[in-house]
Amino acid sequence: MEFVVVNYPTKRSVYVDGEPSGDTNEVLRMDAGTHRFDLGVPANYRPASQDVVVTGTTVLVPMSVVFT
Amino acid sequence: MDRRITLRSALVICALLLSACGSFPVNPPLAKYDPSAGYRFEKLEPGSNSDELFVIVVFSGGGTRAAALSYGLLEALRDTKIHWQNKEIALLDEVDVISSISGGSFPAAYYALRGSRIFDEFPNRFLYRPVQTDLLKLALTPVSLLKLAGPSFGRSDLAAEFYDREVFGAGTYADVVAQQHRPFVILNATDMTTGAQFPFIQDQFDLLCADLSGITLGRAAAASSAFPGGLTPLTFQNYAGQCDYRQPPWVDLALKDHQSRVNVRRTARAEDRLSYTSAEPTPRSYIHLTDGGVADNIGLREPLTAITSLNNSWSVLRLINLKKVDKLVVIVVNAATNPATDRDKTPNVPGLIETITAAADVPLDNYSFDTLEILRKTVNEFNESARLISGCKALATARGAQCAVDIPAPHQIEFFPIEVAFEYIEAADERNWFKNLPTSLELPRETVDKLRAIGRQILSEDPEFKRLMQTLHGCLAITGQNC
After folding, report:
1. Which of B257, B269, B308, B322 should be substituted to probe chain A, the one whose Cβ sees the most A Cβ atoms within 10 Å?
2. Structural domain boundaries of chain A?
3. Do B409 and A32 touch (CB under 8 A)?
4. Measuring CA to CA, how many Å separate B376 from each of B315, B382, B418?
5. Which helix (H) or strand (E) holds B95?
6. What is the spatial distance between Cα B277 and Cα B275, in angstroms, rounded to a whole number?
7. pTM score above 0.95
8. What is the Rg, in whole angstroms, of the alpha carbon atoms belonging to chain B?
9. pLDDT in tens, A27-41
């Protein structure tokens, strides 16, 4: 099990591999591997999406994926 | 002249006979891929069934033994009363998903098709019937022998016709979809070529551009229970490339991980999906399905993927991240046996059949053992993250209030893994009796009734079930006792 926090200034939905999978700024569980992150619509954030290899995380040190 | 007439007559008769030979009933194509239609978890109305209490039940293989034990479990869940969201309800009403293999697929399919009517109909329609004898008699009729002479019609096609006619009343997945309510029932077969599990859900049939709605429950149950040797694999036509199907985004991403091996299991699932849709190395025009027990005799692998991966058509992990699930219950009904043998009482070399049987059974049993271990490991992983965070907080706080830390945590759930298996029967004589029951599609009525009763007893004694009952203020009355 891997742990990821998607950072964004406000709370909004996080899409992992095209599916709504939780909210920004919260610890999300997922399986290891390359995942595509985006924040859905409105697309008023950068970058538009990120492909990230999620591995080697712990619940105490989750991976951070940042959108601005 | 007479010889020529005789030869022509013989040719005509042969042609007529061959034309009468059976061919497998071709599964209907899907006109256009539509992710919002068909038999899918998210399409089923939860109704009063809450996500907060998410219940998954799995029924293992094991012929009528497994069917009767699983049916007994359904009866027990119907009779288990819980207090949930200010109401007293049956635990059965909270079951969200049933995943089944082989013999366990008969009660699962019947429940998907007929709902609570299973409790009035199923015992006489299936459990108490000499299905195996009926199938043998059917196979020996002249009409069946002619059908079986066809190269694309096997004994499982005949069995599927029998199940449709005698058990499921020709019910199809369209009938199941029309009911629009949970549980989402997944009958599992095995793809002979890839060795992967082949679930009877529209997400899987999308890969073939085939419409699951047009397939009968009898045929799905026959595929799930096509015990190798006694029964033949079932054939399904693959129309891939004809319905504008698009693989979900995770498939390409998982394939990128092939070299890095960062998640081999996820990559293998992506490659299995591609095997149906890709023309490389050779297009698979037909898919041959055999008993679900070949890939996983418990039926737990598909639910485990749903619990541990976001990349599943009914991902429970996604629901947990969305904070929809608070309590996760997984009930495994495992009808595995361990028949006694005299093999080790003599120095004689075991015979060929005995050796081949052991070669088939031993890996299957070991795999089932590992599957249950993965469930326990998964439960530990969920619990460990909570323990780590609370441990760190306690350590920091112990150094003084000024050291208290705020560690963000993922949504925590309570996990209840419950196992109903003969090995948990306390009395040795009784345990050995159940562990020596044969795998067959017919058992004496008294044996069926004992299996129904023992499922309830083992459930009531399971420590995790007892914990669940305490948490939900629930109760399952067992014979001679009240709640």
Report:
1. B322
2. 2-66
3. no
4. 19, 10, 10
5. strand B95-101
6. 6
7. no
8. 25
9. 999 999 999 999 999
